[in-house]
């Protein structure tokens, strides 16, 4: 199966895709993939949804400011859905869901988007916790109606790590099962990360203050690469 990533993913990330393996999708693929990344297997997507809903119940005041377009009740209703196939309203919504996911599982979640890539950190953590050493990543392919979920598991201290892409279709016809794919890739120890989402910077709990510091050098590299590409994009004028 062939995919054209160039219109949706930063070109400096494309060289890292090395293999594609098919999986099945039903509109819950985002949560299926996250369950797989957590080591539970994709059938545990229901568990992921339920635990995110429980997190919203526990810390409603913490998440209310991040719901810029929806209310927290609407966000909870979007996640709290367990019928298959899932209609578009109940597909995974980023980056809001990313902040909740990062908090529940105490990981870093990167959302790669050609227009607005962000890094999501936990909003709150138990007393005495240290910054996460695991990074997951999902990427959106707008032009092909696909979503890529990338498992990035490595220590913040540089070392070579393994990344897994889970690419799944967001179908218009939800009565048809769609094909999803898993692409396994390797990156070097200089992984690039987009900027931390602004809402985290404003509204995170004091228990996670400074957790973005270990990532700043990688964020700077990502920004520099992105700026170089933007500076070299030709401007085309119509006659």
Automatic annotation (TrEMBL):
Domain spans labelled OTU: 18-153
Matches recorded under CDD domains: OTU
PROSITE patterns linked: OTU
Protein name in the entry: OTU domain-containing protein
Organism: Cuscuta epithymum
């Amino acid at each position: 199966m062939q995919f054209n990533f160039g219109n949706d993913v930063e070109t400096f990330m494309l060289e890292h895709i090395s293999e594609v393996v098919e999986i099945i999708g039903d509109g819950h693929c985002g949560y299926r993939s996250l369950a797989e990344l957590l080591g539970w297997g994709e059938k545990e997507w229901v568990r992921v949804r339920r635990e995110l809903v429980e997190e919203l119940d526990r810390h409603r005041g913490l998440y209310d400011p991040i719901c810029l377009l929806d209310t927290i009740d609407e966000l909870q209703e979007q996640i709290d859905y367990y019928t298959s196939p899932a209609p578009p309203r109940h597909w995974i919504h980023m980056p809001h869901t990313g902040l909740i996911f990062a908090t529940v599982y105490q990981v870093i979640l990167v959302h790669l988007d050609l227009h607005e890539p962000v890094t999501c950190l936990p909003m709150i953590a138990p007393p005495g916790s240290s910054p996460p050493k695991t990074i997951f990543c999902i990427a959106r392919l707008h032009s092909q109606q696909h979503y890529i979920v990338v498992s990035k598991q490595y220590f913040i201290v540089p070392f070579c790590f393994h990344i897994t892409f889970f690419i799944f279709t967001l179908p218009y016809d939800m009565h048809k099962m769609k094909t999803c794919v898993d692409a396994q890739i390797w990156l070097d120890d200089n992984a690039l990360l987009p900027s931390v989402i602004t809402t985290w910077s404003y509204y995170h709990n004091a228990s996670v203050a400074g957790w973005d510091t270990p990532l700043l050098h990688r964020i700077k590299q990502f920004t520099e690469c992105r700026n170089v590409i933007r500076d070299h994009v030709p401007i085309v004028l119509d006659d």
